[in-house]
Amino acid sequence: MENKKPTFFNLLKSCLQKNISFACWQTPNSEEIHCIIQRKQEAVHYENITQKGFVFYPFQITSTNRAYIVLLDFYFTTKNIPNEVFDFVENCIPQHKNQPESKIKESTKKTYFKQINKILETLNNKEAEKIILSRILFANKIKYQELDVFRSLCSNYKHSFNYLININQVECWTGASPEPLLSVKKDNIETISLAATRKNTSNAIEWTNKEIEEQQIVTKYIEETLQAHQLNYSKSETHNFHAGNVTHLRNVFTIKKTPNINIAQLLTDLHPTPAVCGLPKQKAQKMILEIEDHDRSYYSGFLGPQNLNNESLFFVNIRCLKVLPSQFALYLGGGITPSSNPNDEWEETNAKSRTLLNIIETL
User: Fold this and answer.
1) Burial letters for 25-44: b for 16+ Cβ neighbours within 10 Å, e otherwise?
2) pLDDT tens across 106-154, in order?
3) What Å distances lie between residue 141 and 99, 319, 358, CA to CA?
4) 313/179 Cα distance (integer angstroms)
5) How far apart are CA 21 and CA 41, in angstroms?
6) CA dist 154 → 21, 25, 119, 244, 354 (Å)
């Protein structure tokens, strides 16, 4: 390699150009960016909680949406890149990216309103309490611009889990998630209930009954799940949480870590939470698959480093986009309850889109 080594982001660009499987991320309230690179060219399926690497899990596992892990073969940060990483990337043979023409379609307002009205019928018939409806918005891109998006997310959204993941012959995504699913640390485990959305304002937010109810549904589900596992936990007061250009209601649950906690089962029971699916879970999932005219893929799944320095950090994959050949596909969702208004829900998803669009439009 040349005497002058490439910078951190130039190294990542080489990984994208050669279609190397890698994942990089920035944890909330941290300046440092972490990265894992996998030696193996083929995508590796996620099998269990003991593997080491970066997990990428879909909303629902299907024949086309599998759970993957980027194996922890090389680990480095912006502060320290070992020479062996430069050597591996330089000597790696470029892999052709077999990306077929995308069948993803942008959601229209007319279709979105029809879908909400169908959901409201179900809710008014007391068949469900809450269902999350998502839509897709396109934004134009130039080649490898996803790297610029990620870099800008890291600079502008310090309270989010910012990430960029590329899995050879699978998919490439980036995003800024405000929602931890499960954080497993040395002495404790954390999860949160996050719901209700307002645009940021200098005035005090007066939450509506609909918004409070929406967040309480998620909180109740988390509590019931923790109680079913017979876990000893504490719950914070409900508080405002700023994420990009919007604010949510949030509770934090802290669980004392003990050897008998089944982390894998807890993760399975929490995902997908009512914040991205609805309640009851099975009914909401069934409705989503019937009503949404797109494949959620890895939107509203979860992702994060597993067994890195004896910690695992899993975040819900929201405020995210899928990288297509000439476009970004932004996935936007909102919680529908019996008191939902279709136009208000449309505007809420528009507000959520600004987290990524504000970045894309300035590149």
Assistant:
1) bbbbeeeebbbbbbeeeebb
2) 999 999 999 999 999 999 999 999 999 999 999 999 989 999 999 999 9
3) 16, 17, 14
4) 11
5) 7
6) 20, 9, 36, 11, 16
Rounded distance between C-alpha atoms, residue 339 and residue 286, angstroms: 21
The two structure tokens encoding residue 101: 């023409």
* Neighbour count for residue 245 (Cβ, 10 Å): 15
Structural domain boundaries of the chain?
8-94+107-360
Dump pLDDT digits (tens) for 187-245. Answer: 999 999 999 999 888 888 999 998 999 899 999 999 999 999 999 999 999 999 988 88
As a whole number, the mean pLDDT across the chain is 94
Residues 56-90: tens digit of each pLDDT: 999 999 999 999 999 999 999 999 999 999 999 99
State the pTM of this model.
0.94
Q: How far is CA 51 from CA 47, 75, 187, 264, 277, in A?
A: 7, 15, 20, 12, 27
Count of CA atoms in the C-beta half-sphere (13 A) of 14? 17
Topology, domain 8-94+107-360: Anthranilate synthase (3.60.120)
User: Which of the four pLDDT bands, split at 50, 70 and 90, describes residue 3?
Assistant: low
Are 306 and 55 in contact, with CB atoms under 8 Å apart? yes
What proportions of the chain, in percent to the nearest 5, are helix, strand and coil?
Answer: 30, 30, 40
In this structure, what token pair is assigned to residue 169?
């012959």
Q: How many CB atoms lie within 10 A of CB 204?
A: 6
As given in the structure block, the two tokens for residue 155 are 């600079």
